[in-house]
Amino acid sequence: MSPSPDAPTQIFACPNGPLLVRGPIDLVDGDGEPITQKRKTVALCRCGVSAIKPFCDGTHKLIGFRTETPDAAS
Ligand code: FES
Fold this sequence. Notes:
The chain is an alpha+beta fold. It has helices at 59-63, 70-73, and strands at 10-13, 19-22, 41-44.
């Protein structure tokens, strides 16, 4: 089920994976230039090794990227 066009943008931090962004966003590069989005939901890399940054390419699985829950980090 796709979100309503009026629904707020949602960011979901996938355990051991990317940030999933659902909803409208303006994604720009370091120079402020727009980055074309082809999908309504985008996965943004947070492991740092994707070959298609800022998007996730699944490499986080190959390197065993692990996240911590907020409780575990404190
Ligand atoms: S989070 Fe998927 S490649 Fe970095």
